[in-house]
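Same chain as my last thread, 275 residues:
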Amino acid sequence: MTPSETTLPSDSKKEQYLELAVPVLSFGATLVGVLLWKMGYELNFQFFAIGCVIGSCLLAYLAYIRPRKDIVALSTPIYAFIFFVVPTDYMSGLTLQLLYAVSLTLLLVRLKYRFGASHTAVSSGKELAAPLKSYLDETHDTVTGISPYDAHRAALVISQVSTGEYAQAARSAGMVNGQSPDLPGVLARAFAIVQEHATILELSLPRPEPYLTFLPEDEGLLAKGLSATFSEDRKFDTMFDNAMLLLFSAAWNTAESDRPHLIACQMFVLKLLDE
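reply #2:
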């Protein structure tokens, strides 16, 4: 890697510690309860569910700070609280707590690898990473003919999605398609696809049928190809990734004043490119 390329940081130490704390607390409190029970202390085993409660809150926090919100992870404290307040005997409490600790651990893995890095994990450099720069160079000629207004809106949409402001992103994307009749078709489709996905993310809606897609003639401008082996969910997500990357290219290549904001979103956009 040359000095001008951005070095991508790993997740912050704080987040790594929080991720580690989820299974440690969830399993640890239950195992402490088992140990004390075996030593003859007749304590209410229900109290040892506090580890699952704290682990659930940490998981919900980790889900909250990600641009793409996982509603399942966000809701886990509700179920943990139920375990804490509903009386149970030793064996049923032990079983529930262990199963719940396993569930939290699996949800943590899902959150980390399905919903990407948090929006606090941004690039600290001033240059684009090589894989992203290569794509922007490839699409340069297609996206540079748009107006400064459309380019700025593309940058705004990228920033809003990267920080989880889905309602605002949907409105911003919709404004472009409503006010820019001369926008190239492929970019109009990119704005429309992002608008659809942002609305779904904001309202936690299921995947629509049918959903918006690019056209076959757009394929040469898309960063990520589609395979016949992809599930519909993966195809749906890939459409969103390609739309975001194309809008990033439009913003970067046309709206130079917005580049500092785009650099701050680089880590998020690179995750879309790599997924």
